[in-house]
Specification:
Helix 9 packs parallel to helix 11. The chain contains twelve helices and ten strands. The protein is globular. It has one domain: Glycosidases (TIM Barrel, Alpha-Beta Barrel), CATH 3.20.20. The protein is α/β, with parallel strands linked by helices.
Length: about 325
């Protein structure tokens, strides 16, 4: 059987920083929640994590030219989706946003403005070596005519944003990651800063990879190995709501500094089949929680029955 593709069809690859960057001594990023999580002795002893460590990975951080060369010469690939690790760019807490730039009503983040003043302050706090190295990586992609999709989040958070061991033990006094609206605010600012620094090298943006996996595996499927492995369905929903808000605010923040397509969500879609007719309603509820609640919010502005204009139409494309 012969398969044919349109001339403009692209073949490429995607990768996650935590899974691919490390592997060469000196390239370790020890400032993320995932680093602490996979090295935790209790997690390893219980089998919650495998014990396979990222410092034994493929070493993309140092060997990116080899990776890119093989992708083009051996694979014929011409498109890539690669993320920036928040914990590399801001290993220490970001400065507070300027007064008046953020509007929060209860647990609703209504507005996050990221102006030139804020971007300059963020630039002073950023890890310049990491920013310059990412720029070298992305520039090498462009020099090879590889279409570049820059992803902002592929699961790890900086330790100052999320301490998964404390949360696993039931300590919700902080840092609590996606349970905290401050994470929504700072993620939007991080997204704006990254776009500000790299927009000339980017063809398209995606905000997040599989945010639903983060919420449900972190707080419901607690044997999956995802941090913080703290069983509480209410917190899973709270985390998902904040991930929705973070996507929407990051979408707006990137649009402030870029005219490139943005707002793409890479989503882990689940399909359910009722075993009997009595299970039809249960399947509808499961699919609503697993899929439609996120997309209803960022397309129609409907967040669990509440209509929010600040969430509506925050999506340019969908990946899977």
């Amino acid at each position: 059987m012969t398969l044919s593709f349109p001339k403009n069809f692209r073949f490429g690859w995607s990768q996650a920083g935590f899974q691919h960057e490390m592997g060469v001594p000196g390239d370790e990023d020890q400032n993320s929640d995932w680093w602490v999580w996979v090295h935790d002795r209790d997690n390893i002893a219980s089998g919650l994590v495998s014990g396979d460590l990222p410092e034994n990975g493929p070493g993309y951080w140092s060997l990116y030219r080899v990776f890119h060369d093989n992708a083009v010469r051996m694979g014929g690939l011409d498109i890539a989706r690669i993320n920036v690790e928040w914990s590399r760019v801001f290993p220490k807490p970001m400065p507070e946003p300027p007064s008046g730039n953020v509007e929060v009503v209860s647990d609703r983040v209504i507005k996050v403005d990221v102006d030139e003043r804020d971007l300059r302050r963020l630039d002073e706090a950023a890890n310049k070596a990491a920013v310059e190295h990412y720029r070298a990586i992305f520039n090498d992609l462009k020099n090879r005519n590889i279409f570049f999709i820059l992803n902002l989040y592929h699961w790890p958070l900086p330790l100052w944003v999320h301490d998964p061991i404390r949360v696993r033990r039931g300590d919700l006094s902080g840092p609590i990651g996606w349970l905290d609206i401050k994470t929504v605010i700072n993620f939007a600012r991080f997204a704006a800063y990254v776009a500000w620094k790299f927009d000339d090298l980017v063809d398209m943006y995606s905000t997040m990879n599989e945010p639903n996996v983060v919420a449900w595996n972190g707080y419901v499927n607690v044997k999956s190995g995802f941090p913080p492995s703290y069983l509480n369905p209410d917190l899973a929903r709270k985390a998902l709501i904040n991930l929705i808000q973070a996507h929407a605010k990051a979408y707006d923040a990137i649009k402030m500094v870029s005219k490139k397509p943005v707002g793409g969500i890479i989503y882990a879609n689940n399909a359910y089949t009722p075993l009997t007719e009595r299970d039809v309603k249960a399947v509808e509820l499961a699919e609503q929680d697993a899929r439609w609640s996120f997309f209803d919010a960022i397309i129609h502005g409907n967040l669990h029955g509440e209509v929010r204009e600040d969430l509506r139409n925050r999506l340019d494309w969908i990946g899977g």
